[in-house]
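Give me the fold.
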Amino acid sequence: MALYEASLRVRHECPYRSISERYPDLTIREWPLSDCQVLEISSEETPTEELLAEIDELGTVLHESTDDDGYHVVTQSCLCSLEESIVDRFEAHNCLYQSPTIYRQGWEHYTVVAFDEADVRSLLAELREDRDIDLLSKTSIAEKQVPHSMLAPVDRLFDDVTDRQLAALQLALESGYYEQPRRTSLRDLAEQTSVARSTYEEHLRKAENKLLSNAGQFLRLVTATTSTNPLRSEQPASVDQRAD
């Protein structure tokens, strides 16, 4: 099965278009998380007071530095302005979004991976209906070549996993439940909590199931580049073939 990696840039009204247009040397990289986004902002020039004030308005500053390479800052902000995200359109066309999104000079730069070239074409056709689109590259990924951008966004893996399920999973992991041989049992794990064994096991199993379900699309992506299944033995040769 062939995979396709497409890089495109999009111009439309978005939260960071204005600032990236007014400061052409500015580069903004965005990593969306479950309830917020992390922005890495860099500039080769010394920032003006006006730029610093605008960056402060984007969110909470987590890191800030200035050196020979220029100005660098990391901020965290809410996703309240991104409810109708373009990422939703990617998913509707079976295209996997690969973060980060890069904003520069008024353009948003995205990379997506698809299992079918037709999905890329249909995605581009829909996007062109209401915004400017430039397809920068479209590459067919050869068999056994897993693209460098196939790192699954961490927040996607934990979608819909509740706090109690996460706590059950963390306790099991830290206690050696998943080691071989196991260093603990479900009974011992439950005794470290305030819930019954059956309740703890339910939390743990639901967490495991959700993690595997969320990772399924990325597992499919990786195995799509493998031509053979290592768990299936090759069919034995027929009598006629052995005779040859």
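The chain has two domains: 3-141, 154-223.
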